[in-house]
Amino acid sequence: MNMKTQVIRFPAWRSRMLLLLLLAGFFVLIGRSFFLQVINTKFLQAQGDSRIERVIQMPAHRGMITDRYGEPLAISTPVEDVAATPKDVRINPAQFNALKKVLGLSGQELREKLDAKKGFVYLKRQMPPEQAKAVKTLSIPGVFLQQEYKRFYPSGEMVAHVVGFTNINDVGQEGVELAYQKWLAGVPGSQLVIKDNRGHVIQDAATIKEPIQGHNLTLSIDRRLQYLAFRELAKGVEQSGATSGSVVVLNAKTGEILALANIPTFNPNNRKHMVAANTRDRAVTDSFEPGSVMKPFLISAALMAGKVTPHTLIQTAPGYWTVEGWPIHDADPQGLITVNQVVKFSSNVGASKIALMLKPQVMWQLYHSVGFGQVPDSGLPGEVAGDLRPWKDWRPINQATMAYGNGIAVSLLQLARAYTVFTNGGVLLPVSIIKRTDAPIGQRIISPKIASEIVHMLEMVTQPGGTASNVVIPGYRIAGKTGTAHQAINGSYSNNHYYASFVGFAPASNPRLIIAVTIHDPNASKGRYYGAEVAGPVFQGIMTDALRMLDIPPDDPAQLIAKPDGDDGPSTEHQGLSRRYHASIH
Q1: Residue 321's beta-bridge partner residues?
Q2: How many CB atoms sit inside 10 A of residue 234's CB?
């Protein structure tokens, strides 16, 4: 049987219609291409740019912090951030495993970062350049390096409380890093860059905004004196079994803070195990009852009011006195003594009797005028005003106890500053953590005559029979005052918890340095908790080396003359000092 092939024929108009449709589509595409590439070019340009252009931040270099002689205390070192644009990341399993190992991340942590619905993520901040190179060699599209700066502190824990530290975003958190954040930080800039298909920067297209670099900051600190202060304070806290301690060293003529240290401290370069309480600048932020270091201010008020002279006799026998039913005791009863000796022997009975000769407002005014109850305004953050109650609220017992430093709270920085009244002929100086370029403008509080009389009394404290006769430095006249105060715990004074303090200056004939020391809670079970025993040696250790280091000439050369045979004589370092002195006068 023959099979015939059937041919299906379509109408001619259908083929023509199909051809017309194809031609129409072709012309639409041509028109669209012409429109985009000739008339409206911005659209395609924007689409292309969005795939290869990125705006990145240009970090501003944080200003350096130096001591008064330009020695660096805080500097910024370049580090690398590992960052990613998640939508651009193309990573295989081998690269993923290598990347997580270099970054020190778990697989889950890295996956969460790479899957983030963000245009930009940090994978690791502040990596050392050598580690960052390992990331770069992996050549992972969408993963790139970005430079920034990390803060480094060359002196570490020694000056940590003064300088402070910054966080991972380079923002100051403590110390002058916090107080002068705006000055140090600068303003970041921004830059347009072109990246290849692997996410690597291949060209800097344009600078959108230039970064404004941070300013350097010169502190009043002398790094050498800071080392001495830190060393001697650490030794004093350890030997006394105390819980903490602080020291402030001032330039007696300018009020500049030459050293400030606290124990315990912290390492600003390694804060993984940092204890928050140890970052507190106790010399500035903590107030305490200072004890008998306040007596010179009481005596100043009494001399100004004309109630006493240095030679007025005060009866302190039998070594105790009762005010409003409250007993006041002397640690070393003396009987009938002069006002000079009230300071020398640190008589609480004598001081309280002198205090009650004064109107409360007179005594309050003197305390207030030397800065107690007010923020010192040194430039350090967290300063406290302490506690000086209004005189109208004083009862006689309040006035009596404030004469020897109970019932009033001060910071160590306030206390050191107040002593500038005695080192500058009665003029109180402002204090500063920033190096001064001009002479400070002080405020007269007491007359030069009264200031001189107080200095003489403070010298008697360190002479034989005084409460700090152990605080001597051969060749120099030392003036100072001890203080020992019971701590107030749960509303009452403890019998075995103390603040031991010493504030002094040298040379007494022309003061150059003021050193204030307080030791918190020395171990009373060791039998050593008085200011002279605990804080005095810290003062002595710092002052001895500081006078030599600053080449300050002796003002009592007779002490440097060699002692007769059988006497130990001065130490080797003081013999050397004696030779230098005698060489200078011949």
Answers
A1: 328
A2: 18
β-pair type (217-218, 65-66): parallel
Q: Tokens for 224?
A: 């050498």
pLDDT at 585: 28
Regarding beta strands 513-520 and 244-251, do their DSSP bridges make them parallel or antiparallel, or are they unpaired? antiparallel
> What band does 7 get if pLDDT is binned at 50, 70 and 90?
low
Question: 258's torsion region: left (phi>0), alpha (psi -120 to 50) or beta?
Answer: alpha
**Class of domain 223-271+279-555 (CATH, top level):** alpha beta
Domain parsing of the chain, residue ranges: 55-218, 223-271+279-555, 557-586
Annotated active-site residue in 76, 292, 369, 378: 292
pTM of the model as a whole: 0.82
- Asked if the model's pLDDT at residue 207 lies above 70, the reply is no
State the residue for tokens 């051969």.
Answer: 474
Is residue 148 within 8 Å of residue 105, measured between CB atoms? no
Q: What confidence tens digit (pLDDT) does each residue in 93-146 have? A: 888 888 888 888 888 888 888 888 787 888 888 888 778 888 888 888 888 887
Angle between helices 107-114 and 93-103 (to 10 degrees): 110
Distances from the Cα of 552 to the Cαs of 61, 419, 508, 510, 511, in angstroms? 39, 20, 12, 10, 10
Can 584 be counted among the known catalytic residues? no
pLDDT at 84 over 80: yes
User: Domain 55-218 belongs to what topology?
Assistant: Penicillin-binding protein 2a (Domain 2) (3.90.1310)
* Amino acid letter for position 309: T
CA-to-CA distance for 535 and 284, rounded, in angstroms? 18
Q: What span, in angstroms and rounded, lies between the C-alpha atoms of 163 and 268?
A: 9
| DSSP codes joined into one string, 84-108 | E-GGG----HHHHHHHHHHHT--HH
Mean pLDDT value of segment 495-505: 94
Stretch 557-562: mean pLDDT = 63
Residue 576 pLDDT level (bands cut at 50, 70, 90) = very low
Q: What is the distance between the alpha carbons of residues 405 and 469, in angstroms, rounded to a whole number?
A: 21
Tokens of 85: 């644009």
pLDDT at residue 24, as a whole number: 78
Q: DSSP assignment of 201-246, as one string?
A: EEEEEEEEE--BPPPPEEBS--HHHHHHHHHHHHHHHHHHT-SEEE
